Amino acid sequence: MISIPEAISIVKHSSKPLLKETIKRVEKAGGYFLFKDIISPINMPPFRQSAMDGYALNLHDNLTYTLIGEIKAGDGHRPTLKKGEAVRIFTGAAVPDSANAVMMQEKVSKTGHSITLEIQAHTQQNIRPLGEQVKTGDIALKKGTKLTPAAIGYLISLGITEVSVFKKPNIALVTTGNELVEAGQELTFGKIYESNSKMLLSALYSLKFYDVTRYKVEDNYAKTIETLQTAINNNDLVLITGGISVGDYDFVGKALNELKVQELFYKVKQKPGKPLFYGKKNDTQIFALPGNPAAALSCFYIYVFIALQKLMNRDAEELPRVTAKSVSSFKKKGDRPQFLKAIYSNGTVEILEGQNSSMLQTFALSNALVYAPETVTDINEGDTIEVILLPI
Hints:
Elements: H1 4-14, E1 21-25, E2 38-39, E3 49-50, E4 54-57, E5 64-71, E6 85-89, E7 101-104, E8 108-111, E9 114-117, E10 127-128, E11 139-141, H2 149-157, E12 162-166, E13 171-176, E14 180-181, E15 192-193, H3 196-206, E16 212-217, H4 221-234, E17 237-241, H5 252-258, E18 262-266, E19 277-281, E20 284-289, H6 293-311, E21 321-326, E22 330-331, E23 338-345, E24 348-351, H7 361-365, E25 368-372, E26 378-379, E27 384-389
Parallel strand pairs: 5-6, 13-16, 13-17, 14-15, 17-20, 21-24
Antiparallel strand pairs: 1-12, 2-11, 3-10, 4-6, 4-7, 5-9, 8-9, 18-19, 19-20, 21-27, 22-26, 23-24, 23-25, 25-27
Helix pairs in contact: 1-6, 4-5
């Protein structure tokens, strides 16, 4: 059995970036990271653009101008203005080449075919210059940039429809157990609804990992070997829930050994999640998570999250940790470090009731985990403690 810092270090050093390229439609590339620089194919804006509703002017010394027309956003005509002439113009419309300022409409009075300014305009006022955001041939976004909604909108505004991004890992979710049935089916005596795979699937989706395949295997040694072999051969990361302990019908550990999976660690001195397995076969990483739901999810956030970040070559490897003042008390049993479900808010944290590893109700209310090291036996109201912020 190893310590939490040792386990975290092993995951960090054993996880390698995937560094594979894939092409995505821009509108479906949210959450991905650019595989290469994006070079702008156009100037943005592609013409001198009015920054507001008002009047485009060919400046002269007088405050009065002759109004000769109108340009709406999207109009393609290019009137030529002589000195002292103006056109009505709207936000986003193309400013004529002969205009050198735009005066906002609030500072203008109109009489017939002439306008009078309240104040003198200055050159290039309220005009967005050609290529103000980016010029043709310049780098629009650098390699490694995360594609946020704003980045997606920006790329589409440049006319880009496809992007080269770092491929995300193919992930397998394997659930084991004769007692498990799908929600919606009849719950006969002795059975429970299988929640771990959907829970972990939701956690993966929230982190924008969508290439996930679910496998279910009964407590049968031969079938466990067959299912795990398929999952390992076809995925970059395999997450198994249940069957990793040493009961008569826990076949996962034996099957992984039969498949010659390299064990990097098994069992961590922690609560919940002591029977956690981490190993590799070729380039595929395998986590065998505890079957208890709260333990499985805790291990996902502490260890699997790191592996996912490393696969995507990200620098921020762990979930953020902060210190906070406890507004509740907790008595820790045993000498194992604990991850406690909690609610964090504005520098304070409340440790919740119901910390059993099989219980999800408390976890459903949590947005954080309190880390209680083995040296801590009691947490009292007012104590400053370490808090892990969950990505929810």
